[in-house]
Amino acid sequence: MNIPENLKYTKDHEWVRIEGDVATVGITDFAQGELGDIVYVEIETEGETLDIEEVFGSVEAVKTVSDLFMPLSGEIIEFNEELESSPETVNSDAYNDGWMVKIKLSNVEEVEGLLDATAYSALIG
Q: Which CATH number fits the domain that encloses residue 60?
């Protein structure tokens, strides 16, 4: 299981890379493995400001559809448009090219509530 030490995680199986007041967000290797082959990523909230834990989009796999939850409050400033034509990138490269959105953070202090790699490893057992 790939759980990079330099990222933060949520109980909803999203990863977060913090760079200043911008967070890049995707789903974890564990999550993509549980979902199976991803066929569609839907993000219709670009340009919107959402609160922590609000739904910002969904991931559709062959077996199921799963909501995506905001790991931190802020404005969705960018969507990874490569996922429109190649959603399977989330399966093959969850932590790099498979990123989903970038968020301009409203409250940087919320980062303290995220899990580190050790805590996320314990969560998924």
A: 2.40.50.100
